[in-house]
Fold this sequence. Notes:
The protein has about 150 residues and is mainly β. Helices cover about 10% and strands about 65% of the residues. It is built from 1 helix and 8 strands. The protein has one helix spanning about 1-20, and strands at about 20-30, 35-45, 55-65, 70-85, 85-100, 110-120, 125-135, 140-150.
Amino acid sequence: xxxxxxxxxxxxxxxxxxxxxxxxxxxxxxxxxxxxxxxxxxxxxxxxxxxxxxxxxxxxxxxxxxxxxxxxxxxxxxxxxxxxxxxxxxxxxxxxxxxxxxxxxxxxxxxxxxxxxxxxxxxxxxxxxxxxxxxxxxxxxxxxxxxxxxx
Length: 151
């Protein structure tokens, strides 16, 4: 038991030293009037891929709390612009979207998101646009607004 806890602690330490994380919560409002709520978890490499550029993985849960519950897994990349009043990041996300309650590989569709994040120390505000396909081939496009914390 002690060896297992030590191994978990060491792995957590290594992961925390190699990656930075973000936890965001917000809404996606489609242009046809649908409101979806989302919780997002991003992981970014601490090492930059190029000057001011990092990439990583993202996971997301999207729901209207009635009959639509989606999970999302994909990649995220961002470009940081350092300004006098903080950091603004331009980002892009792409990945697979799947129904949480009725999962099936034949039901996987796609989601794309782009936007800008403003970092005030560890607090971030995110505004962007999204486009996703549901399993019945209906397309939702709209704007998104998130507030989060990076650690």
